Amino acid sequence: MLPEISFGSFSISSSVFFWGIGIVLCLAEYVAVHKWYGYRWYTALLLGGMMIILEIFGAKIMFYLENPSAFGEPISWSGGYSLYGVFYFTPIFLFLLSLVMKTSFYRLMDFLAPGILIELAFYRIGCMCTGCCYGIPVGWGITNGVQDGLFPVQPLEAGLDLLLFALIFFLFLKKRLLPGETFLSTFLGYSILRFGLEFLRHRTNVVGPLSVSHLLSLGQIVGATVWIVVLHVQNRRRKDCGQRILREFEETLTQSAEENCVSQSGDNGVS
């Protein structure tokens, strides 16, 4: 464990330190791809900063929903967050922001969502250093400061988050994702990873072998999957509609050309 990182006489919590690294890299990713989405670099930084603030509020709201007993206690901004608040509430906040900005919600979410995975990966490294969100006892692995031999679920999640980011980035470069599908794939991929990893984490079950995070994962998996299917159905209908209009246009041109030929033949006295 490494609860704090010291630079001379200055010390900082490891979780804050690694989360800060994740935020910096996340913002760097926004600046790197800003032109692909039609944003200026300073707009990308501004949107990224707003995203991080909204993430904090979303994670705090979800924490209180998961822990009703915390209501009435003094609010602590140094802890007490639920990462699922990022995925459930941030889209709502950003939808409202897209209305204010008069921009496409899908474009905004596609731009911002993948960077969350970078931020989460380094956040989990901070979790490992401080001993929170620890794994189940397996007789080998890492420690949380109280118990040794715990499954290293935090670094495993960090690595998988980065792999998921690389996969989504690759699919985006290959232009295999519809508008909106980048952010939905991010949310779907993370929820699938989290659902599996939750079995390797110390947890409190609420429904059979499932914890609250399991249920939130399932909700997100179902929601994102249905949304992706709807996107593809709508895209297919647009293609079919476009092809039908094109065929009708071609038929109209052909008919018009034939009528002109007939008319010209009549004018020339051809029978």
Task: Please give a structural write-up.
The chain is mostly helical and 271 residues long. It has one domain (11-262). Helix content is 68%, strand content 7%. It contains 7 helices and 5 strands. The strands form 2 sheets. It has a two-stranded antiparallel sheet with strand order 1-2. A two-stranded antiparallel sheet has the order 4-5. Helix 1 (14-33) packs across helix 2 (41-66) and helix 1 (14-33) runs antiparallel to helix 4. The longest helix has 56 residues, at 212-267. The radius of gyration is 26 Å and the shape is elongated. The chain starts with a strand and ends with a helix. The mean pLDDT is 87.
In short:
The protein is mostly helical.
Q: Main beta sheet, described?
A: 2 strands, antiparallel
H and E order: EEHHHHEHHEEH
**What's the total helix number?**
7
| Unreliably modeled segments | none
Secondary-structure class: mainly alpha
- What share of residues are in beta strands? 5-15%
Q: What is the rounded distance between the termini?
A: 98 Å
Query: Averaged pLDDT, please?
Result: 87
Strand count: 5
- What value does the Rg take, in angstroms? 26 Å
Strand order of the largest sheet: 1-2
Task: Count up the domains.
Answer: 1
| Form type | elongated
Q: Residue share in helices?
A: 55-70%
Features:
two-stranded antiparallel sheet, 271 residues, 7 helices
Topology overview:
Elements: E1 4-7, E2 10-13, H1 14-33, H2 41-66, H3 84-101, H4 105-130, E3 137-142, H5 153-173, H6 181-198, E4 205-207, E5 210-211, H7 212-267
Antiparallel strand pairs: 1-2, 4-5
